[in-house]
Amino acid sequence: MNCYLLLRFMLGIPLLWPCLGATENSQTKKVKQPVRSHLRVKRGWVWNQFFVPEEMNTTSHHIGQLRSDLDNGNNSFQYKLLGAGAGSTFIIDERTGDIYAIQKLDREERSLYILRAQVIDIATGRAVEPESEFVIKVSDINDNEPKFLDEPYEAIVPEMSPEGTLVIQVTASDADDPSSGNNARLLYSLLQGQPYFSVEPTTGVIRISSKMDRELQDEYWVIIQAKDMIGQPGALSGTTSVLIKLSDVNDNKPIFKESLYRLTVSESAPTGTSIGTIMAYDNDIGENAEMDYSIEEDDSQTFDIITNHETQEGIVILKKKVDFEHQNHYGIRAKVKNHHVPEQLMKYHTEASTTFIKIQVEDVDEPPLFLLPYYVFEVFEETPQGSFVGVVSATDPDNRKSPIRYSITRSKVFNINDNGTITTSNSLDREISAWYNLSITATEKYNIEQISSIPLYVQVLNINDHAPEFSQYYETYVCENAGSGQVIQTISAVDRDESIEEHHFYFNLSVEDTNNSSFTIIDNQGFIFLTLGLKQRRKQILFPEKSEDFRENIFQYDDEGGGEEDTEAFDIAELRSSTIMRERKTRKTTSAEIRSLYRQSLQVGPDSAIFRKFILEKLEEANTDPCAPPFDSLQTYAFEGTGSLAGSLSSLESAVSDQDESYDYLNELGPRFKRLACMFGSAVQSNN
Fold first, then answer.
1. Which of 4, 51, 296, 679 could form a disulfide with 333 if both were Cys (CB 3.0 to 4.6 A apart)?
2. Chain-centre distance of CA 185, in angstroms?
């Protein structure tokens, strides 16, 4: 059976659609294929693809006709349309097979419809031909304008950027079919922004076309247009705005708006005082406007400038105190420069801006000024009242030169007049007070609140107004059998007067004691030996067999002992409780032998450890004290021990035959025995 479906388009071009099931031998009427249709063979049957233009604005728009080759026009066949969109978007005339679109078609919403067609014999109700599919494609028209989807656009670019610098790229989108002619091919152009910016037509890249200065204008609005159909007539277009901001670079140096500043400072202002501010202006912003102020010219080195980094002001401060009477005005020059300047921008900062500052010193009433920071005077003691001590001087540093009134605080022995002359008001005694620490006050008569004070030191000089005095009360004891020439007491004197050198005293017995005395005095100008006179001889020893026992009454010179009645000085009985009596040997006079015996006596003393320790400590004390008088060392040799090989140095038991003995060997024992040798040598000469 030969059958076909005929689909007519709105262009009026029929399409022959062979019925499914027709064989290759089936005779079909050849029709010319319509434009924009495709005929394909699939599994032995033929189906078609149809193109329908979008943007149909009528309520019912005829698309084409579906017709079977068996239809003889007697209305015996019924045409049916099945599939998505059938009945809602597309309808078919059941008698004629005409297909209509009843809704507006939008390719951007749906570009393809797949439908099925069927032919029914009205008389039998059976399908004349098998059901078959066909496709309706919605063809594109240029119905969408370009749109910029990434709005808003904003870009930042440094000022003074060179030509060609990339700023930003804008991109528009067109919903039309890019494969359908030039509907979606865009072309960019600049509507606003000349002459500083340009846009690449095909990419939408915005570039700088001229240098810009942020200080003249810091932001620009650029309008970009995008046209489809590559800008041909009838093309649709869309626009967008781009905000372009210029970032700052340090292309401006700070400049003083004022070429002269006038400031004042009080002469009483302390160092570090802020006396005023100066200000420079920089058209840059941020860290590019940070400044550093400094002094360029100041021969006096009196002022300095520091920078307040919060306000970008220069603070003029006082580096040294000023004096109105010395200099009442100053002139300095200050300069300013940026703190951060990149190397490539140094060409804008070749010469720093400067300004001149005049500073006037204000006069204030200042207190009197002494010529010296302190005074030291000397005056002899016992000077009469009203004696001259010295002169102090203070002046008013101000121009009016007020007279000065002086006074002395905390003093009852000195006076001062209005001329600054200091005199004594009482007698001075150096032995009571050798120094006076005073304070001199100067007061302006025109303004008594202006006061200055300085220290005054007065030294009282010595005169010889005091007689020597014995250093202590002496009560001397002597044994009744003491020999002539024996030293029994050392006396000394002191003088309250001051002496540059050591005091030298001269001693002698009183007149009544000189003619009738059993004692004589030896004057060594520093300490005195009181000895027995030659008239008195040693008495006979009452108990010769106990001669050793009388050592209990050893005299301690320098008043360590108390004589015969003093038995508590040393308990000799305890010290010699275990001693061994050794035969006494005759004293040698050879110096070397004496020194040897001296060393042995330290080793062969009493067995008592206490006594040996005592002797060694006393010897060490005498040897290590370079200032100890020689007589202090006599106590070390008060007891050499029972049976000492050297014998006793004490004169208490010296025999009469020892009086003629020579003591020259003492000169060979060293400097510590020099005084002892001198004393004994003098005693022997006196006896002779």
1. 296
2. 68
